[in-house]
Amino acid sequence: MAAIPLLIGTTANTGETVTYTFDSSIDTTTLQPGQAFDLRSYLYSIGVISSLDITLNLTVIINPNVAVGSSDPTKPTLTLANFKSRDRVSVINNGNIYGAGGYGAGSTALNASGGPGGQGGSALIVSSPINLVNNGNIYGGGGGGGAGAGSVGFYAYGYPYFWNCGGTSPCGYIPSPNCGCWCCYKCKTQQCTYMNQWTGYVNYDGYGGAGGVGQGAYTSAGGGTGDPTGGYGGVGGAGAAFGSYGSTGSYAGYNTGQIPGVGGSPGYYIYGSSNLITFTNNGSLAGLVA
Predict the structure, then answer these.
(1) What gap in Å lies between CA 270 and CA 252, rounded to an integer?
(2) Cβ(48)–Cβ(58) under 8 Å?
(3) pLDDT of residue 156
(4) Are 37 and 83 in contact (CB under 8 A)?
(5) Lowest-confidence pick of 214-223, 232-241, 247-256
(6) Are 124 and 77 in contact (CB under 8 A)?
(7) Total domain count for the chain?
(8) Which has more confidence, 205 or 263?
(9) Full 3-state SS string of the chain
């Protein structure tokens, strides 16, 4: 394990030194329902921190083989915010911090373009100075797949139809309105009647298939679905692996100018100002960073 880098800030003598360990896998959306998980307020709510006003020397450890994740791509797995500039905060990840997989786009209506896949969720949001040591995995969620394009339309088909001279029964299908053909020749006259009769049509209506969900803490990357009606709609794009872009859906089998939805972007493995983070990485990272 790498040594903890030099700490940011200073700690007053009256502060608290606290170590908090994630020793089992947890979905952080269950710890603070209805809001994005905020580490500082959570530790206060469970009594690990005695006061929100006290100066902290805080170390957070994620044990090996432990996965800390989010099941909602709109909620980051860990938010480290609202710490004071004089606090010293270190996060040592020996396990896994996973963002949620992005949502796949829903199926597409007839003659409509497909919707885009959702962005994967973020693993870490940082807006306070911290020291971060990664000895494991920090992955943003995979992007969701875009929806396939919808289509609508039909194609009629048929053949010229010739009637017998003065009769009521047809003499059959022939390739052109030529009364000199064998059919009317059998009637021994050139006075035959021509009709262009349509004999049927092919229905090109189709709904675009839904995109697949991206890989996340609690989801595997899912494949896109086909046209739910079995028609000519495009297939939805597949969801992506951790830290990758989802796939774009496909065009409809009968193209009426509608376009498929693009795949969603991956989540951030770290979102925060680089000058707030002292980062030592000995592990694996996937996704965007800002």
Answers:
(1) 38
(2) no
(3) 57
(4) no
(5) 247-256
(6) yes
(7) 2
(8) 263
(9) CCCCCCCCCCCCCCCEEEEEEECCCEEHHHCCCCCCCEHHHHHHHCCCCCCCCCCEEEEEEECCCCEEECCCCCCCCEEECCCCCCCEEEEEECCEEECCCCCCCCCECCCCCCCCCCCCCCCEEECCCEEEEECCEEECCCCCCCCCCCECCEEEEEEEEEECCCCCCEEEECCCCCCCCHHHHCCCCCCCCEEEEEEEEEECCECECCCCCCCECCECCCCCCCCCCCCCCCCCCCCCCCCCCCCCCCCCCCCCCCCCCCCCCCCEEEEECHHHEEEEECCEEECEEC
Domain range for 279: 1-153+204-290
Task: Considering only CA atoms, give the Rg of the chain.
Answer: 32
Q: Is the pLDDT of residue 197 over 90?
A: no
Taking residue 278's Cβ as centre, other Cβ atoms within 10 Å add up to 17
Could you give the CA distance from residue 19 to residue 78 in angstroms, rounded to a whole number? 16
263 and 162 in a common domain: no
- 61-96 residue pLDDT tens: 999 999 999 999 999 999 999 888 889 999 999 999
Q: Which residue has the tokens 């693009």?
A: 262
Could you report the per-residue pLDDT of 93-112, keeping only the tens digit for each? 999 999 999 999 999 999 99
Predicted confidence band of residue 155 (pLDDT cuts 50, 70, 90): low
1 CB-contact burial (10 Å; exposed 0-12 / middle 13-18 / buried 19+): exposed
Task: Examine the domain organization and report whether 209 and 198 are in the same domain.
Answer: no
| Closest by CA position to 107, among listed 220, 203, 229, 222 | 229
Verify that 86 and 193 share a domain, yes or no.
no
**Residue 224 contacts residue 247 (beta carbons within 8 Å):** yes
Same domain? 216 vs 194: no
